[in-house]
Design a protein that fits this description.
11% strand; 92 residues; mainly alpha
């Protein structure tokens, strides 16, 4: 019984706080398929990605506001596509 306790404590001694799943034994295939679980976070790449994502969202919002200010509105076509149509008065 004491030998199993010593094995558990020795494996716990190698683990460090914050290692999470990286400290567990796994196969190479599992590590290849789930690369994100084992890669350390890279702040530079993450900030570049967030900046690009923010720019894309800003551009979409700008284009939508631009069309709406010109008098267009978004409508759904028969095929399910979103189209922008000019607002028409019932008197036209």
């Amino acid at each position: 019984m004491s030998s199993s306790n010593s094995n558990k404590t020795s494996s716990k001694a190698n683990e460090k706080p914050g290692h999470g799943i990286r400290s567990m034994r796994s196969t190479t295939a599992f590590r290849v398929v789930n690369f994100e679980l084992y890669a350390k976070p890279n702040i530079v790449i993450m900030s570049i990605g967030l900046t690009c994502f923010g720019i894309a969202l800003g551009y979409i919002a700008y284009m939508r506001q631009k069309y709406e200010s010109m008098g267009y509105y978004s409508a759904i076509d028969k095929d399910g596509k979103e189209i922008f149509e000019k607002k028409k008065s019932k008197w036209d």
